[in-house]
Amino acid sequence: MRNGIEAAEYAAELQRLVRYLGVSNGNMQEGSLRCDVNISVRPLGQSQFGTKVEIKNLNSFSSVNRAIDYEISRQVLLLSQGQGDQIVQETRLWEEGSQKTVTMRKKEGLSDYRYFPEPDLPEVVLTEGYVNKIRGSLPELPEMKRRRYEGMGLSMQDVLFLANDVKVADFFDAAIAKGAEVKLAANWIMGDIAAHMKNEKLSIDEIKLTPHELAELIAAIKGGTISGKIGKEILFELMAKGGTVKKLIEEKDLVQITDPTEIEKIIDKVLLDNPKQLEQYRGGKTKLQGYFAGQVMKATKGKANPGLLNKILLEKLNAKSS
């Protein structure tokens, strides 16, 4: 590998792997996953590797990235100043505060690195059949999942977010299996659901919303039963308290008003109650359309179908202006 970001991303992928496999929670700050790095540099055109330096005390991927890049520049500087002999085989520590590597201990010979056979450790021979059996039992791994999501037509931003956490990926897959539209499910998970999880410091399996209810919510908005605005309100209740979309819509009387006659009546009343604004609109202040739409939404508690509302409202506003 040639730089810090490459190594940090490789380590992050290993973390995803152990989490996908359920081997470990992979939390670096708890020591469930540790990372030491070895760095050596060599001038362009030189085939022989330079002296290797090990760095310890790296407890985050960003510190892996920064420590490597710092150490590369430290060694390059010494070589460029003709002080290559100052680069010795040693263990250094990464100091987060000063953003530098410092000497921890120098290692004199190969024996210090344990480069000799360990008599108490027997050889382990893994047969091809055994390896294949394990390979066949593996779940879908991060890279396979990313390729599958790409094949669904999701953007790389969506793919990386959804596949990063196996629990989020499972939730997404379950919502799709229940009939949710791929892009809409991704948008809800990456938007309002992710924001709620971040604010409440919860993981996706700790929220009360189920994948089935997310699919139901998407269907209710798409089918015109409720508006997107009401959908958001229901979503937050589902995440905090649980329950079903159907029951909440019934309990709170949230069904969208899609009857043109009913919407027309409400619009007529709003226009009648706001003669001054109506006159201003017809006098050229067309931005007031938003004001009237807001008043209708207020009167219907957000239940008027936005498309119908704007269509009828425009017809009414422009009807008598001639």
UniProtKB/TrEMBL annotation:
Q: Which UniProt keywords apply?
A: ATP-binding, Ligase, Nucleotide-binding, Protein biosynthesis
Q: What does this protein do?
A: Allows the formation of correctly charged Asn-tRNA(Asn) or Gln-tRNA(Gln) through the transamidation of misacylated Asp-tRNA(Asn) or Glu-tRNA(Gln) in organisms which lack either or both of asparaginyl-tRNA or glutaminyl-tRNA synthetases. The reaction takes place in the presence of glutamine and ATP through an activated phospho-Asp-tRNA(Asn) or phospho-Glu-tRNA(Gln).
Keyword Cell membrane, does the record have it?
no
Q: Asn/Gln amidotransferase domain spans which residues?
A: 170-317
Check the record and name the NCBIfam families matching this protein.
Answer: gatB, PRK05477.1-2
Family statement: Belongs to the GatB/GatE family. GatB subfamily.
Q: Which organism is it from?
A: Punica granatum
Identification of the protein by name: Asn/Gln amidotransferase domain-containing protein
GO terms (molecular function) for this protein are:
ATP binding; glutaminyl-tRNA synthase (glutamine-hydrolyzing) activity
In terms of superkingdom, the source organism counts as: Eukaryota
Reactions it catalyzes: L-glutamyl-tRNA(Gln) + L-glutamine + ATP + H2O = L-glutaminyl-tRNA(Gln) + L-glutamate + ADP + phosphate + H(+); L-aspartyl-tRNA(Asn) + L-glutamine + ATP + H2O = L-asparaginyl-tRNA(Asn) + L-glutamate + ADP + phosphate + 2 H(+)
Q: How does it assemble?
A: Heterotrimer of A, B and C subunits.
Mind telling me which Pfam families this protein's record contains? GatB_N, GatB_Yqey
Entry annotated with the keyword Iron: no
Q: Name one GO biological process term.
A: translation
